[in-house]
From TrEMBL:
<protein>
    <recommendedName>
        <fullName>Extracellular protein</fullName>
    </recommendedName>
</protein>
């Protein structure tokens, strides 16, 4: 018997068991915790603001932006997305045509969520199924290369051809299991990224914290959200670090589908949420496509295809019809997210092809 080897094995197994007992994932180097009990401690909504039903989209056949296929994906002119309905109308314009192909054709064509840094320098985009779970774009460097004005095809060309200037503006994170990938959000209080690892709907979400510098996960919190209620794959944080998620019930011919918003905190090893007792009678669109927070006006945004609804955080629980803003766009693009800078500049992300629209005073 090799006693030295035997002792090493015993020590290794002991250390592994100790790490597991402390909730640490020894293989991935990510702290992992399993929460006891449920995260939802406060039931569900009991009454609803009966906002006007601007938002129902009974038929939404996904299309592509102008010139996407005609240009071989190398679009060089902005696409305008005009508001055509709702009680709060704002238009949007393409600022960045995001990459479609990098290692293989179309491997970056399906981003699912976006977050931006408070200054607006960085856009963080989540890619399920891609070799990097999160890719960071330095928008200031890209702007200096005319990517947002006179040279809009440069980002797609530059990544495909490995152009040094373009590559210097793009940081690829490690491979990640991001689930559906629809919930990437920046906590402005900690400057850390979070997402919920899950499919489209679940009762057992995993909250994952990610470094905004390395784009690698720091820790994960496995939870049972509720034994009775599920959530959609949405997440947002306000200036105070409060976390928000929601569930949208399926629409009918007469109703757009109601929404229940949950507010809570994600702590070191657990998450706790309570339902906002007042729900929204008519949520936007059919499919949920994201959630966002605008630090400039303290509003929460609920994103669907072609439709975005927002509500003031300060009035959650006692909303009036006039507090609920809905913008309906004249488009058939598939929406994938919305994010804001600290000054209130918004970026709407869509696909076919992947792009970021700028929207102001939203």
């Amino acid at each position: 018997m090799n006693y030295r080897r035997e002792l090493s094995t015993i020590l290794f197994l002991g250390l592994t068991l100790l790490l597991l007992a402390l909730g640490v994932n020894a293989h991935a180097g990510v702290r992992s915790y399993t929460q006891k009990g449920v995260a939802l401690r406060g039931g569900t909504a009991t009454y609803f603001v009966n906002n006007t039903n601007y938002a129902i989209v009974p038929k939404y056949s996904y299309g592509s932006s102008n010139g996407y296929y005609e240009s071989g994906t190398y679009q060089n002119q902005p696409y305008y997305m005009l508001a055509t309905g709702g009680n709060f109308r704002r238009n949007a314009k393409t600022s960045y045509y995001l990459p479609v192909s990098y290692n293989s054709s179309g491997d970056m064509a399906n981003p699912q969520s976006v977050a931006v840094s408070k200054s607006g320098q960085y856009a963080y985009v989540m890619y399920p199924g891609f070799s990097s779970g999160i890719v960071r774009y330095d928008l200031w460097k890209l702007n200096s290369l005319g990517v947002n004005t006179t040279n809009m095809a440069a980002l797609r060309y530059g990544l495909k051809r490995r152009d040094p200037q373009i590559m210097a503006a793009v940081k690829f994170g490690p491979s990640l299991n991001v689930g559906h990938g629809q919930s990437l959000a920046l906590n402005p209080k900690t400057n850390r990224l979070w997402f919920i690892r899950m499919d489209v709907v679940t009762r057992r979400p995993v909250f994952v914290e990610v470094s905004a510098n390395t784009l690698a996960p720091i820790k994960e919190i496995k939870t049972t959200f509720s034994h009775s209620y599920s959530i959609n794959n949405e997440l947002a944080f306000d200036n105070n670090g409060n976390a928000y998620t929601y569930v949208k019930y399926r629409p009918s011919r007469r109703h757009a589908g109601s929404i229940v918003i949950f507010k809570g905190k994600i702590y070191a090893k657990s998450a706790k949420f309570k339902a906002i007792k007042q729900g929204i009678a008519n949520g936007p669109g059919v499919q949920t496509q994201g959630m966002s927070y605008n630090p400039a006006n303290n509003r929460l945004y609920l994103i669907s295809d072609g439709v975005i609804t927002s509500v003031p955080v300060s009035k959650l629980g006692h909303l009036k019809n006039k507090d609920v803003r809905t913008t309906r766009f004249g488009t058939n693009l598939e929406f994938e997210g919305l994010a804001f800078t600290s000054s209130g500049t918004g970026y709407i992300m869509t696909i076919r092809g992947a792009q970021l629209f700028t929207i102001e005073n939203f």
